[in-house]
Amino acid sequence: MGYSKIRCFLFGAIIIMLFVSIKTQAQNLENGKKIYQTKCLVCHQSDGGGVPNMNAPLDGASNVIGNDIARLVKIIKNGFNERVELDGLYYSNSMTANPDLTPAQISDVLSYIRTSWSNKATKVTTVQVQQAIKGNQKTSAK
Amino acid sequence: MKKGIYLLLLSISIHFLAKAQDNAGLTLPTGFKANLFAENIGSARHIAISKNGVVFAKLNRADKQGRTIIRLADENKDGVSDNITGWANYGGTGIYLTGNALYASSNEAVFKYELDSKDEVVNPLSPITVVSGLISRRQHESKSITFDKTNNIYVNIGAYSNACQEKDRTPGGKGMMPCPILDSAGGIWKFDASKENQTYGDGKRYATGLRNVIGLDWNPQANKLYVAQHGRDQLNTFFPSLYTDAQNAELPAETFYEINEGDNAGWPYVYYDNFQHKKIVSPEYGGDGKKEGASDIKNPAVAFPAHMAPMGVLFYTGNQFPAKYKNGAFITFHGSWNRAPLPQEGFFVAFVPFKNGKATGEWEIFANGFAGTVDGAKITSTRNAKARPCGLAQGPDGSIYVSDDTKGSIFKISYQK
Ligand code: HEC
Fold first, then answer.
1. Is the ipTM, as predicted for this complex, more than 0.95?
2. Comparing C-alpha atoms, which of B145, B173, B177 is closest to residue B158?
3. Interface residue of B383, B384, B390, B407 to substitute, partner A, most A CBs within 10 Å
């Protein structure tokens, strides 16, 4: 194979890989949206706005677009029912746990809520979710 | 140039005239008008009004000055508050005035203040604790209050749960039998308002099986307590094989009860279905959407569409409104969230006609438009409602006042012959 042929092959491979990864990323978001609609929308609403005093907003929430992925994973897996201030306000409802969601599904729904509405944070990978689950297990065992 | 200024002045005055004439954005029956008595006072929950027309609003959280009871006086009598002060540092919902005693509730306790002859609070920093130690576990934590004619106070203690599942809000989860929450919550408790430092043991569970009541009032004609319950949520998300999204949006009814001592409204075991006109066994307790509950459970006096969240009840005793309103009940509806993915409903004040102290079973929308949508558009996400009706009280001239706990508006609604 000549030098230019190798270049051509590599270039083609990169294009195909990019294409595949964009496509799976779009599928992940589509999947995350479906999970959101069946498991989250009732409380957090279609625009991620939540319900004043009851259900925390996800749109614009500093924790949702922040870097503590382990905390987000824990909330989705175990539910959330604590008297804590979120961006200066309190919410009184108790959030349903999702023990049945797989790491891949959790990464999909997290990617969806971190990139929807006004949120422009990074997506979350399955590996990040798996690491977070391991880490969370260690800290809860302590 | 001059012409331009005149045009500008003209358009400004037209703007203000329009604002005054647009009834603060509300739609009302003919002959009624509304204006904003106050704006941006904070998360105004229930309100009470003195015989001199001073309005007291209980805030759910402290305002910027750290106050949670707001006193609003209209000294120049133009229908808009012009002297606003406040005190207290605990969030909550309940507020009630009897004579010169002002009662206010946190989410755990009820406090009593004394007002002087000018409706100024005498003991802002040292209220009397009437009741304390009431259960408050985030969900349904507000403690609404009302009084009968013999100085007894009725306190709602909401259930810290949706349907008493072993694990709250779990898909398919079973209900606990019997529901242990009912011993100390999920009902109305009665206390003697003249006593101090009371807790559960000093009071009496007056009614049970009420998931969460925020609006309650004494019907003076029937001499009975009336309460409006928030029905349970999420039939579709927890029992998708039994209920569709569209069915959940209409089930169960929000219910308004006449309460006698010892009554049981059936939560969590049953809910009220306003299409079958039956009390139906909850799916957490083996129900299938059709099976009927026990017959000794109280029937509602009036049933409303699901999830609209009744917040305040007021029996109208004034003489300003047309005769049909006398001794009837007004109810504020906060507006729903649990109808999603279908559009939300509520965000209005309803009127419930009464005859000889009994509800006729009918109801109608009295004041609408609080959500501030254009051309009747629906709210799809609850946060987009501009105002959400909450507290209700009657002024000395027979006008009624409605509070909003999103931006903190107080609407004054009057009738002109
Ligand atoms: C039953 C209602 C309900 C459902 C269903 C629900 N949540 Fe929540 N969620 C809440 C409430 C209430 C809070 C705040 C809880 C608190 O303050 O303790 C919350 C908090 C959160 C937070 C933390 C927000 C912050 O600012 O820290 C995230 C993230 C979240 N929810 C995501 C989700 C996702 C994703 C789903 C679906 C898989 C979901 N929720 C389903 C009610 C719900």
1. no
2. B145
3. B383
